[in-house]
């Protein structure tokens, strides 16, 4: 076998290997759906193995529930914060829900916010890849996270339970003063309380 033929074979094998890798690692979905404009959810809206492309925001209101499993929510944003996911309303006693499992939020490479308010219940499981929006929660939101990476701003009476997660928290502190010692680097346990008068921010690990 001459050298030129050997080089051709190696190049062909390389191209085939790259193609196979991309095929095996690229998420594939059984269903594809498209929604033009804002998607308002006031009942149960469930997708599984679905790529949902949206030219608008997702608004979950009232007692609405969005359930997405093994899916992708793809937002066709042309600019930062053009669209958003908004679950619940400030000061509302209604309890909408967001449930994401092994689901990617694709923001088209642009910045986007996901906000939770009121008595909203949020569950995010196995979403450690592609969740680049910034999440914010206030009022009486209840959040459960498992095997998930998330960036979150938290205020008021928010409850967060996390298991095997990588978290970046930004806490909103009001009506408090004092000196608080926080550890540097990784620690096995971290417990502290910020006393804000009528409210308290308590972290237990």
Q: Give the C-alpha Rg.
A: 21 Å
Q: How many β-strand stretches?
A: 19
| Helical fraction | 10-25%
Catalogue the unreliable spans: 19-25
End-to-end separation in angstroms reads: 64 Å
Query: Which sheet architecture does the biggest sheet show?
Result: 7 strands, parallel
Order of helices and strands: HEEEEEEEEEEEEEEEEEEE
Describe the structure.
There is one protein chain. This protein has one helix at 3-25, and strands at residues 31-36, 39-41, 44-48, 50-55, 58-60, 65-69, 72-75, 84-87, 97-101, 104-106, 113-116, 121-125, 134-137, 142-146, 149-154, 159-163, 166-171, 192-196, 199-203. With 205 residues, the protein is mostly beta strands. It has one domain. It has a seven-stranded parallel β-sheet, with no helix packed on it. Strands 3-6-9-12-14-16 form a six-stranded parallel β-sheet, with no helix packed on it. A four-stranded parallel β-sheet has the order 1-4-7-10, with no helix packed on it. The longest helix has 23 residues, at 3-25. The radius of gyration is 21 Å and the shape is globular.
Provide a compact summary of the structure:
By secondary structure, the chain is mainly beta.
List the helices and strands and how they pair.
Blueprint: H1 3-25, E1 31-36, E2 39-41, E3 44-48, E4 50-55, E5 58-60, E6 65-69, E7 72-75, E8 84-87, E9 97-101, E10 104-106, E11 113-116, E12 121-125, E13 134-137, E14 142-146, E15 149-154, E16 159-163, E17 166-171, E18 192-196, E19 199-203
Parallel strand pairs: 1-4, 2-5, 3-6, 4-7, 5-8, 6-9, 7-10, 8-11, 9-12, 11-13, 12-14, 13-15, 14-16, 15-17
Antiparallel strand pairs: 18-19
């Amino acid at each position: 076998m001459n050298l030129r033929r050997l080089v051709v074979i190696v190049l062909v094998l390389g191209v085939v290997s790259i193609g196979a890798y991309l095929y095996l690692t690229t998420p594939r979905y059984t269903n594809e759906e498209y929604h033009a404009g804002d998607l308002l959810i006031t009942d149960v809206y469930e997708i599984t193995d679905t790529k949902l492309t949206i030219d608008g925001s997702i608004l979950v209101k009232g007692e609405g529930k969005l359930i997405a499993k093994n899916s992708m929510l793809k937002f066709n944003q042309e600019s930062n914060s053009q669209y958003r996911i908004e679950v619940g309303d400030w000061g509302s006693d209604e309890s909408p829900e967001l449930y994401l499992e092994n689901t990617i939020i694709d923001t088209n490479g642009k910045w986007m916010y996901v906000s939770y308010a009121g008595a909203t219940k949020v569950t995010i499981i196995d979403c450690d890849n592609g969740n680049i929006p910034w999440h914010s929660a206030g009022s009486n939101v209840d959040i459960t996270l498992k095997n998930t990476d998330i960036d979150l701003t938290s205020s008021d009476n928010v409850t967060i339970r996390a298991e095997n997660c990588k978290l970046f928290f930004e806490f909103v502190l009001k009506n408090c003063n004092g000196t608080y010692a926080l550890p540097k680097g990784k620690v096995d346990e971290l417990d502290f309380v910020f006393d804000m008068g009528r409210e308290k921010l308590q972290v237990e690990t």
